[in-house]
Amino acid sequence: MQIGQKKTTGQKMKKERNRGRETDRKPNISQIQKTGEHCIYAKRCGGCDYQGILYSQQLSKKQSYMRKLMEPFGKINPIIGMDDPYHYRHKVQAAFSCNKRGHIVAGVYEKHSHDIVDVEQCQIEDAQADAIIREIKNMMRSFRIRAYDEDTGYGLLRHVLVRKGYHSGQIMVVLVLVSPILPSKNNFVKALRKKFPEISTVVINVNDRKTSMVLGERNITVYGKGFIEDELCGCTFRISPTSFYQVNPQQTEKLYRKAISCAKLTGKETVIDAYCGTGTIGLIASSRAKHVIGVELNRDAIKDAISNAKRNHIHNVTFYNEDAGKFMVEMAEKGEHADVVIMDPPRTGSDEAFLSSVVRLAPDKVVYVSCGPETLARDLKYLIKHGYRMKECTPFDLFPFTKHVETVVLLSQLRQKPDDYIDVDIDVAELEGTSAETKATYEKIKKYVAEHNDGMKVSNLYIAQVKRKCGIELAENFNLPKSEDARQPRCPKEKEEAIVEALKAFQMI
């Protein structure tokens, strides 16, 4: 009996030692790539949807999902993935607290809770940023810095935010404190920079409110300039603690280059960069356009955008701190025109007020940069219904191991606006052998109408009537109803409009 007990105890001790080694060891990336091994924090963290799935399979899943959503609008290009999908996040933040044993923990909130998962290293976060956070956690006891307790409200350090420039290598450390006073702050910064001399600036952010927001409104620079700089697509951008800047700069460069190449700028165009933020896309596009207009509602973002334009010596970009939708309506009322609208809305997508302003301004091209596929599909329905069609759609994987997909979609105006269909005048005699009537079958037209008009059904008779009205000669062998006379029902106006949209989409008129 005693022997059995000793064996059990020994097994437990061995398991505990193994568990400790597994927790502390650095994940073997090549092994994970080959075997799809889970991250050791996966079960509690919940931040990655595709743990244990090979990266090639992740891309296949995302491609299938995007094809299902986007194919009703047109052809989908293959998804653009990463060569190395690990440690891509160049913005890393960790929440700090104490566990029940009084030990400091730093990491992410467990899914659906406010318990913190003590993450030593993450396979999608920048490894150096993780190391800086670990060092800060180790330094706290010697500097007598207490971690913040959400329940009691006691403690000083709430979060640490680390941002790293991909090209510049500059590092910013933001200490989110309840109070603006950090004990021995100069010695703390000196000790931290001794271990990580690459740190360019250290900022105290004051957040004394009971809120789930990470950052407060007040920033105090304790070392360096209070910001870092990085290069993106040949332009230099200033990144402050609150600046929006994509967390995956490698893929962001590919995403933005694609968005700008879709517009096929020649240097003669007026471009509107809606939801422009700190001006990244507009400033990058400026070298190929005549004039870029950036519009953004966030005042601080516009200040950064103006600063970024000066830093890059760009003079053909004008920024406005206004609502982009209202701005474009005013442009249309003044008779002004934009050749291209580039829109990069939040994950919730755009709204009908903004989309209607795009339609009213009527640019030749719309480049939609999306971070939410479902809302993209919703917004495309509106734009297609109001005179645009999708020319190109390219998904990008900016967030490996998660379900998120970014997308660049190019839309162009149809040759005629939907309201102009009544007066179409086509000389059928001039049509070539591959004339309009051969471009799409009646079944294809029915399918298009149903997909773009909430399941609307149209008959062969209605399609034939609209074709004739548009000057399209019907094939002699088309199987029309036998009773082709004046007593036949006439195509209702709403169905006529839907059929005209389909004919335009198939370039039949």
TrEMBL record:
Amino acid composition bias (Low complexity), ranges on this chain: 1-11
SUPFAM superfamilies in the cross-refs: S-adenosyl-L-methionine-dependent methyltransferases
One Gene Ontology biological process: rRNA base methylation
Active site: C371, C371 (nucleophile)
Top-tier EC class: transferase
Binding positions (S-adenosyl-L-methionine): Q246, Y275, E296, D344
Signal peptide feature range: none
Region (Disordered): 1-31
GO molecular function ontology, one term from the record: rRNA (uridine-C5-)-methyltransferase activity
Keywords from the named record: Methyltransferase, S-adenosyl-L-methionine, Transferase
Family, per entry: Belongs to the class I-like SAM-binding methyltransferase superfamily. RNA M5U methyltransferase family.
Protein name in the entry: Uncharacterized RNA methyltransferase SAV1897
Species assigned in the record: Roseburia faecis
Native organism taxonomy: Bacteria, Bacillati, Bacillota, Clostridia, Lachnospirales
